[in-house]
Amino acid sequence: MTQDSRDGELPFASTPTASVAGRTLAQSTHQWRSRSSPLRSSAPNVVVIMLDDVGFAHADTVGGAIHTPTLSRIADTGLRYNAFHTTAICSATRASLLTGRNHHRVESGTITEFASDFDGYTGEIPKSAATIPEVLRHYGYNTAAFGKWHNTPALQTSAAGPFDRWPTGCGFDHFYGFIAAETSQYQPSLYRNTTPIEAPNDPAYHLSEDLAAQAKRWLREQHALAPDKPFFMYWAPGAVHGPHQVFSEWSDKYKGRFDAGWDAYREQAFERQVAMGWIPADSKLTPRPDTLAAWDSLPAEERKYQARLMEVYAGFLEHADVQAGKVVDELERLGLRDNTLIFYVLSDNGASAEGAGGTINEILSISGVPIPFAQQMKILDEQYGGLPALGGPKIANMYHAGWAWAGESPFQGTKLVAGYFGGTRVPMAVSWPKGIQADAAVRGQFHHVNDIAPTIYELVGITPPASVNGVAQDPIDGLSLAYSFADGSASTRKAQQYFEIFGSRGIYADGWMASVFGPRLPWLSATAAAYANWNPDEDVWALYKLDGDYSQSTDLARQHPDKLAELQARFDEEARANNVYPIGAGLGPLLNPSARIGTSQTEWHFNADVTRLPEFCAPNLRARSNKVTVELTVPETGEGVLYALGGMAGGLVLYMDAGHLHFEYNCLSVMRTKLRSTARIEPGARRIELQTLMSGPAPGAPATFLMRVDGIEMARGTAPFTAPLCFTASETLDVGINLGSPVSLDYCDRAPFGFNGRIDDVHIVYIP
């Protein structure tokens, strides 16, 4: 380190002592040494707001039908960008944004749950790529993150750590949120820093509201205790990623608004986008792919279901945006808004088509488990109360992929499609009243999330350090977009940017875009068979001249084969430099189930102290033959959970109720296999066994369950299929209690339903 921050090294933060030492204390003068700041006095506070899975044409700020007053507020007091890009998937985008590097360079070529041992895909952001908060903290900033954190390797999310890639190990002084792709909005799996905490058991609770309240509290504390210190806040609530959950009063605002369907919505949004100048007047609306159903092809009864799913999504989005507004309100109330630089990135990728045909549980389609509409409606009506249950705490619903496609007007593709703007291009607004003159002119410069970090460094007035905590730093891949603040018509300075997720790929260079859609259609169920014959070397590339073709509507590959070859060569150079190869490495866990993240242990002993063990760190009781033996003391009338894995959207649980022993395998909300002992379990020391026998190695294979007490079989049953990928993204294994959302509806009103006896040991062993 040196004192001069201009050379790229981190600064010292103190000046020589002002004390004068004599031979005795009486002869000495004492004055506390002063500490100089390496920052200029005008250095702004920085707030990054980023929502999740929002479509380019969903917000009314940019031509959509869903009210987003906070996005409009930031845009109206600053600038708006219509050619800003993400990576097409959440973990990758967040890693790129926070480090200023390309996502493969920082080992985030896929989501953390799909990590593998290929370079570029391990899910471990290297220490040679310090995050924005880590750098700013060395320059005197206080830092905090609220909401979704999807950048800790899945196997490092338990109480055993390590914690160096949790938010507090990545530069944040404070973290409040969840560590997963998603969580329940009503019963989330929360952490404060590295400590698990439980959300209140309150029907009025909602995670987005909690995150706003926590952020406001932190701002007030900073203002009261360290008013002279600038701060960096990362507010990323997880909304509107599935499950789509919000109070009905928000969804009901949109009743009837989507009855015309997704085809009509897309056309109407396109007209508004053009009319308001959000997209160029010569933009073309790309057609619906043949693999997506036309709205008019749906039966009338199904249209009601699909329209309600979109109403829930719309209410969810408006609700999340309003919560972001509460954070901005607090900045204003504290007098901090004028010198706070706010980036509002509307989404971490394009709208998500992972709901496929519209679902009461998004994990069904992600896992490749097709459930026809009629069957889903029957389950919804009989078990959950019909359409009014959508958006509530008992359902993990997600809208039809048609709504995601409609929300990506005028582009091709959705989330997971990295080669086309439907997967990568998102609205962004930037506001800094003290430093940026508001301008209603839309900025069309081509930029990427890796450009936010260098922009912040430039505006704060620091040079990205060459070394952080003794680790030499990799070069920043991003380029500051600050040049565009004063001149909306300035030419794009970003010359090149590659994209790749799940084999979908592309490269932008000097106004041209070469694209490969890739092997995966996000709106169709993902199965290994879909990729069995895929050879990336045989993929057909398309070529687009973006000046005059904003939406990638006209393929010029045949007219300009030399230009296409040039861009393909550039992609190859970038892929080699950034550890992108092998193409499609992110698909590994789908192609090869044995490659999925999981513990290498085959035997465990747990006691009642073990709770909140994330599913990806826990024994695979879901889809692997195993035996669980519980040594316990049963009271006079046994009540409560002995162990539970998962939650309302899917899981399994062994519990006692009114003295009877129960087991339930909740297969993603659509199939519940239940076992119950005929007789009550006698009080005293008991040994209970639950054996799971898979019928075969295929993902989703049926399973047989045997329940024994003291060696005597009490019940057996069969699940016709099992959850092939996971139960949920964030629920956990708990002994003696069911934290988070309850696995079984039968004790839903009594959750977390702790056991009233004593559990001495839960012994789990895999059966070969």
Write the layout of secondary structure elements.
Layout (H helix, E strand, L loop, with lengths): L44 E6 L18 H8 L2 E7 L4 H10 L32 H7 L3 E8 L24 E6 L9 E4 L2 E4 L8 H19 L5 E6 L11 H4 L10 H14 L24 H34 L6 E6 L16 H5 L6 H12 L16 H6 L14 H4 E7 L10 E2 L3 E2 L3 H9 L6 E2 L2 E2 L10 H4 L9 E6 L2 E6 L2 E5 L25 E4 L15 H17 L10 H4 L11 E4 L6 E2 L11 E9 L5 E8 L2 E8 L2 E8 L3 E6 L7 E11 L8 E7 L2 E8 L12 E4 L22 E9 L2
Parallel strand pairs: 1-7, 1-8, 2-10, 2-11, 3-4, 3-7
Antiparallel strand pairs: 2-9, 4-5, 5-6, 8-9, 12-13, 14-15, 15-16, 16-17, 18-29, 19-28, 20-25, 20-29, 21-22, 21-28, 22-23, 23-24, 25-26, 26-27
Structure at a glance:
This protein has about 775 residues and is of the alpha+beta class. It is globular and about 80 Å long.
Which descriptors apply to this entry?
alpha+beta; 15 helices; eleven-stranded mixed sheet; globular; 768 residues; disordered N terminus
| Biggest beta sheet summary | 11 strands, mixed
Q: Would you identify the regions where 5 or more consecutive residues have pLDDT less than 50?
A: 1-7
Class by alpha and beta content: alpha+beta
Number of helices: 15
Sheet-strand content, in percent, reads 15-25%
Q: Report Rg.
A: 27 Å
